[in-house]
Amino acid sequence: MExxxxxxxxxxxxxxxxxxFQHQAMAQDLIIVGTESTMDASQDWLSFLQTQEVPCVVxxxxxxxxxxxxxxxxxxxxxxxxxxxxxxxxxxxxxxxIEWISQAGNGNMYIKTDVWxxxxxxxxxxxxxxxxxxxxxxxxKEDWFELITDWFDIETTDLLRAY
Length: 163
Hints:
The protein is an alpha/beta fold and 163 residues long. The chain has a single domain (28-162), classed as Chitobiase/beta-hexosaminidase domain 2-like (Chitobiase, domain 2, 2-Layer Sandwich), CATH 3.30.379.10. The protein is 52% helix and 18% strand. The chain contains eight helices and five strands; from the N terminus they run αβααββααββααα. The protein has helices spanning 3-27, 36-41, 43-51, 83-92, 95-102, 130-139, 141-152, 159-162, and strands at 30-33, 56-59, 72-78, 107-113, 121-127. A hairpin with a 7-residue loop joins strand 4 (107-113) and strand 5.
């Protein structure tokens, strides 16, 4: 093999390894999908996840198509928001769950698996109204925090009590 061909082969192999490792790291992010207004209302929550060193990528519903096969996803939204977040909620939740969270004052957290990809784990926090959704997120914090710390092998602290 000529010297130039050998160097080219090595560069290709190194490049492929780099892409594999880069993809693996990106696949291990927590993808959080929600509207801009929901994310604005959730700044304290996002800051808390950051202090716990949870690797998060926040996307709006329009960008979610690029990320929907991620291993770990949180969908957060309400039935009084834009059609794009409601469409995502309808893909993940059952018709009965959608009907229930559509009723005024109802909100809940749901755990789903394998919706868009095998082995996928999804937390859905949804409610009839954005304020109800936020209340559902806060009232289920021990549940979603336990799941996220398990997914990312994070040492738990007493900071959850402060959040």
